[in-house]
TrEMBL record:
Protein known as: Cytochrome c-type biogenesis protein CcmE
Classification via Pfam families: CcmE (PF03100)
SUPFAM superfamilies in alphabetical order: Heme chaperone CcmE (SSF82093)
Binding positions for heme per the UniProt entry: 122, 126
Gene name tied to this protein: ccmE
GO CC annotation terms, alphabetical: plasma membrane
């Protein structure tokens, strides 16, 4: 083997090792990857019950219902479709109707979602990127425009 062939073999071996390492990392992460969806995307894609995901949109006005203990249920909407969310725990201080929210949990089917975490926006100018993109796509959110009463 001459010098050029050894260098080529070394590069090929390093490439193969990197390829195998990338494959192992992706295989290990397959259960931890969580996709973001809006209510309309859930309706269009027909997700299977038990799918772990993030759901984002606006908390629908008049939809918050508090139950015993720390149970709360509310609807997340993008103006076109709505998904009912059930959550048990403390809600963020800035959680309220008409505000942007991102929930993470399990889709239960039939327009129901069981959340294990809820994130609310922290001021009037912030909106999670995924929520803003979904609402812009539906034409229901414009940056810098506040609704009356906010």
């Amino acid at each position: 083997m001459n010098r050029k062939q050894r260098r080529l073999m070394l590069i090929a071996a390093a490439g193969a090792v990197l390829f195998v390492a990338a494959g192992l990392v992706l295989f290990a992460m397959r259960d931890t990857i969580v996709f973001f969806y809006g209510p309309t995307e859930i309706a269009e894609k027909g997700l299977q019950p038990g799918t772990r995901m993030r759901l984002g949109g606006l908390v629908e006005a008049g939809s918050v219902e508090r139950g015993p203990g720390q149970r709360v249920s509310f609807a997340v909407t993008d103006g076109k479709n709505t998904v009912r969310v059930g959550y048990e725990g403390l809600l963020p201080d800035l959680f309220r109707e008409g505000q942007g929210v991102v929930t993470e949990g399990v889709f239960e089917g039939a327009g129901r979602f069981r959340a294990d975490s809820v994130l609310a926006k922290h001021d009037e100018t912030y909106m999670p990127r995924e929520v803003a993109d979904a609402l812009k796509k539906q034409g229901h959110w414009q940056p810098g425009v506040q609704k009356p009463g906010q």
